[in-house]
Design brief:
Keywords: Signal. By secondary structure, the protein is of the alpha+beta class. The protein is built from 4 helices and 9 strands. The chain has a single domain, classed as Rossmann fold (3-Layer(aba) Sandwich), CATH 3.40.50. Helices cover about 25% and strands about 25% of the residues.
């Protein structure tokens, strides 16, 4: 229980003080969402809690709706070492990196269901769906690298990541939930012999999101 509580505290604190990302056209009825406790903006169907869900599936995470990097987001590109993590990084665009992050996200989601203490719901391929399956669809809509203002002085501003998502009943196709969440990791850890990676902030953010979604599924869509 302490582990579960720590997850929710971490999610709550990382959301505090961070403004939601501008909505994209991925969520057709984004205006329905309201402020949530563990996700910034949430809408749930009145039927969200109805059903005996024993399986969870997720479509491949997309980057179609992602905001491109602005001028300030791209500055100080030479202050980082990226080759060991994202070969061929192009500081004019973050879509190649986002594709790698999406794969990391998908892997961590599977792991989160294995790590969840309840384990009532199992992770299954998204091609095998029925009324007992929750189907999630996620888009990465923002991915901004860590900003190093003064590399010589070690001054750092955390990087940001934002997602939008939908949850459906896998059998009926009924939408049960939609959400939007944007987070900033202000304490990125140095990796690989002390070098600060430009996108090292995504790992803790993804870990927290996936742990929460595993909890959501295992509580019958009641967690929020």
């Amino acid at each position: 229980m302490k582990y579960i509580g720590a997850i929710f505290i971490a999610i709550f604190l990382s959301a505090c003080g961070t403004s939601p990302a501008a909505p994209t056209s991925f969520l057709e009825d984004a205006w329905k969402m309201e402020e949530g406790r563990n996700l910034q903006l949430v809408w749930k169907s009145p039927n969200a809690h109805i059903g005996q869900y024993t399986k969870f599936a997720m479509k491949p995470i997309g980057v179609t709706y992602m905001k491109r990097l602005g001028w300030w987001d791209k500055k100080n590109a030479t202050s980082y070492q990226e080759n060991d993590v994202f070969p061929g990084f192009d500081n004019a665009d973050n879509r190649k990196v986002a594709s790698d992050v999406a794969k990391m996200f998908e892997h961590q989601m599977r792991q989160a269901f294995l790590d969840d203490p309840q384990k009532d719901v199992r992770f299954v391929p998204h091609t095998f769906l029925d009324n007992q399956t929750l189907l999630m669809e996620i888009q990465i809509i923002e991915l901004v690298p860590i900003k190093k203002y003064f590399p010589a002085m070690g001054s750092v501003k955390g990087g940001a990541m934002a997602i939008e998502g939908q949850v459906f009943n896998g059998g009926t196709g009924e939408m049960l939930m939609m959400f939007s969440d944007r987070r900033i990791e202000n304490s990125p850890k140095q990796e690989l012999q002390g070098k600060l990676k430009r996108y090292s902030h995504v790992r803790p953010l993804i870990h927290d999101w996936c742990a929460y979604f595993a909890r959501l599924a295992n509580t019958g869509m009641k967690a929020n």
